[in-house]
Structures are given as structure tokens and as C-alpha cells.
């Protein structure tokens, strides 16, 4: 292991606050978080808000909410890139003093005229400023930008931990602007200065930034700074293999919360999306931290698969502690703008989780199965359940009710009592279960009759049976 990788690991997530937290951004943040946490390192959050026209406080808040829902905690304060603009400008002038950059007085019109001529003549449109080697004594008293002096021969090599060795011919890279004529820094400069000053050791980001790495490497070299470990991860595609878009469904992390996916399941699925640890599909966050490494990231785009997402989420719901599950359900209802649970509903739902959570893949599915515990009398049966409540069935329920008044209220005793009652009537328990489900839940597909009776209690059970018996 090199001395560089022995340094304490520092990663960062640096979104632009121009909209919601995209699911691809959520996965990038997750990979950075896992790598830092797994190495006992630091995970930083920087908001790249230099685009003042498009950056909004609302978008920043949405990004923070998305990260918090995913359970990705960051270290220290959130850094605003815009707030560091003076530091960026300072570095641009230091590059100038080092001879690694120069003042360029070429106007926008002159650059466009050059490019039009180059296109017409079939030449490269890469602008080569006439001011690169100009004597400062010849500089006019006019607005200027500061351009970096990029090498014009040879190649810039990126040793990427995911993509491998990537080479860029230097004659295809121009002298990029690092400071605009109004004194504001460009994104390319700001990113490098921030990463250096924040001590970032590993830059883990989407492979749409791979070309940027070549230019940013030149800034590191110009300043004599240590270059971080690069790891450019493939993007997420839709199930059809095409770039993820609205036609594939939800794109924002918060949308997945509002659809009722548990955060732990989402973390598990996103971790597995483009990264592998053997054949492991289901794992905890602690296991993911222990196992996660850059070498497990594939080079091909990952495909979003909602069936796999639901399967993983169902497994997480099944093993969640009841208190944690209730906390997430309450948060889901708020995110989905659905009515909050009443104190009685809260109590009943929590007591019902034992017979619900291994049967649901999402919170809406779990709550649908919990309708028997959440609804108040009178229970209105749906069409299928109504068919189970004919005159004969209602008569049977009337006979059953007095027996339940004195029955011992445990699953074992209730099972024995109801089985014996069905036997006395010359019917299998299945014939009795249909009317009971209809009376207790208003549905034909429910948790077991005994579980429902235990959750809602003796008094509520008898009251619902009496309601149904009346018809």
C-alpha cells in the first residue's frame, strides 16, 4: 500500500443545488460515505453553489433532506463553494505568479471569430490564446481572464481506481479559464482548490466527470499539490439500458421515501447497484461499511431494477426493530402527505407489526395489510368480503359471539376454541375463517384470524362480529 492510501481517508459529496437529490447522486454520496466510514475516515459535504442563477436554498434543503433520509451523516459543517470564492481567486493569482497561468485579453467576439474560421477551414477549434507568452509590458488596460498554461505536448494520464489508466492527449486540451474577467472563479478551479483545502484523499464521483479529471490534474500539478485518488463510477441506467430519465419512474431520492421504501433497504439496494461483494444481495449497513471497496465497482452502467429493490426492501422491513419501523412509517406518511396515525392507530399498528412485517415490501403494502388494525367501526366489507357474509354466515357469527365473551384471549386458546366451534357446526375452519375475515377486516386477504383478534382485543373483536351479524 502506498503512503498516500495510508493517510486518513477523506471523501466528499459535492452536489449542485439546482434541484432535488437525484438517485444517482444519492448513490455517489453513499459510496463516498461507505468508503470513509469503512476506513475510519471523514465524509464531507460541499454544496457547489457557484452558479448563482440556478442555485436555490430550496434545492439545498432538498439535498440535505434526501441525505438525512438515506441515513448518510456527514462530518463537520456543510461547506458552501460560493462562500470560498475569494480563496479560489487567490489561488488563480498564485498560479499567475508561478508562471503556471497568464492573463488573456482576448474578447468573446475574437474567440468566436477564430472558431468560425477554424470550422470553415476544417481545423481544430481549440482556442490557443495569443497572450500566452506575451510580455506583461504589452498588456493593455482592459478586462482579462486568467487562463492556466496547459502543456501542449505529451499526455495527461489518469490512474483511476475504477476505469483503470485513462490517457488524454494534451493537444486536445485548451488553456482553460480559471478566473473570469469579473473576478469569479470557474468550476474547474473551485473544485480543485476546495478538494485540496478540505484534505480530500479520494474523489469518488460519476464517470461523466472523467474528462474533468484531466484538466483538474493540471491544476494540482500547477500548484504542486498532491493529486487525490480518482474513482469515476458508471452512471445508473433504466431497466432498458438507456440513460435514466422520468420515463423510468422516480428520479429523486425523496420520491422513494414518499413511495414507501425503507431507508435501510434503499441503502442496501443502491450499494449493490454497480458494486458487488461476492454473491451478497442482502446486507446491513455495518456489513456494507466493512466490505465496501473501490475494487468492487464495475465499469459498466448499472440498471435500475424495481423488482430487486422491492425484494431487498421487503427483507429489511422483515428484520427491522419495531420502534425503528414505526419511526420510518410515521416519516413516510409525512413525506407522502398522508394523514398521521392517531394514538389508537399507533398503538394497534405497533402491536400488529409481528404479523405484518414479513409480508410487505413497502410501507403502503404493510399499511394495506394493517387495515384491520387501523380502521374504526363500522367495518365496511369490500365486494369480495360481502359475499362471505350471507345469512347463514351471519347466523354463525351470532352463535360464536357469546363463546368469545368467556374465551381465554391467547392465540393457542382462541385457535382451540374456534376449531372446536367449527367442528360442532360440521364445517372445516376455512368455512368459518371467511366470515371472520370479512367481519374483522372487511377483506378476504388478511393476517390470520387469531392474530387480528389478538391485536384489536376482545371487546373490539366482539363488537365487529356483532356489527357483521346484524348485516
Structural descriptors:
single chain; 471 residues; mainly alpha; Glutamyl-tRNA Synthetase, domain 2; Arc Repressor Mutant, subunit A; three-stranded parallel β-sheet; 12 strands; 10% strand; cytoplasm; ATP-binding; zinc ion binding; nucleotide-binding
CATH class label of the domain at 246-368: Mainly Alpha
What's the rounded overall pLDDT mean?
94
The general outline is elongated
Assign a percent range to the helix content: 40-55%
Q: At the fourth CATH level, what is the homologous superfamily of the domain at 246-368? A: Glutamyl-trna Synthetase, Domain 2
Kindly name the structural category: mainly alpha
Number of helices: 20
Taking the alpha carbons of the first and last residues, their distance comes to 77 Å
The biggest sheet amounts to: 3 strands, parallel
User: What's the number of extended β-strand segments?
Assistant: 12
Q: Which strand order spans the largest sheet, edge to edge or round the barrel?
A: 1-2-3
